[in-house]
Amino acid sequence: MMKAKAWGVSVLIGAFACGAAMAQSPSKAGPSSSTKTLQTVGIVQNPCASLLPAPAIVQAFMAQSDQAKALHQPLPQPSAEVSAASRMWQDERRLQDFGDLCRYRDANAALPQASSHRVVFMGDSITEAWGTGDPKLFTDDVIDRGVSGQTTPQMVLRFQADVVDLKPAVVHILAGTNDIAGNTGPTSLGAIENNIKTMVELARANHIRVILASLTPVARYPWRPSVTPIESIKALNDWIEAYADKEGLVYVNYFTPLDDGHRGFKAKLAIDGVHPNPAGYAVMSELAKTAISQAHSQTP
Known about the structure:
Layout lengths: L10 H12 L33 H15 L9 H17 L8 H6 L8 E5 L1 H4 L1 H4 L8 E5 L5 H11 L7 E5 L2 H5 L7 H17 L3 E5 L16 H18 L2 E3 L2 H4 L19 H20 L3
Helix pairs in contact: 1-2, 7-9
């Protein structure tokens, strides 16, 4: 879900960012390596070690992307062969680890004991890329746990491991745009709302204060041009604001300052009409800091 010079142009490129951290030993070259049958099933000591690695062609592309990032150069664009191999691999990985529990498993294990002011950001690629778009926000025990391309049912699956088990004082939840895009299939606004409620209830049951964020503006998803998201985003944002007010949660409105006046993302603040650029993240970070202060002042 990102674009050249910053991220990628589709869920595919967002998957490369996730896959780089998850990939195991190199597999044999060719698309067939991304569709081989997983041999290890059932209960194992380390399920993440049993997941299929990225095909060699995808690993090579990720290495090129990592090198470009390190040199602050524009990201390479994937070939049709790379794109096809990555899609096949990601389909297999989604079956094996639908919630992407392996994405942050090692990072979570390496965290020090939580401070009394720890904040965890739960979300999708907008959250994941925030750590690069404005790294200053993610200091002093503010932790980024975004996963590119994720929908709310996937976030529910990893909420225990990536939020509750980290024992934060506050969780910031920005979720739902990929559901509207149809990343994991057809859904309904009611289903998205229920998943957000589930995350909120899990947090509150564990004495974690909640910040609920509005979805950011989108007029068109580059990877799913057939979807018309404007009215669905408005309806979900209206529900999120009303639900936050009803439940006494901190609500942060990212939509309004990023809106171009036509319910799309301001071009000067976005990369691809969906993902913020550093200027967009700067706007969001100021609002997030205010919301975090408000949440810290609440009684758990």
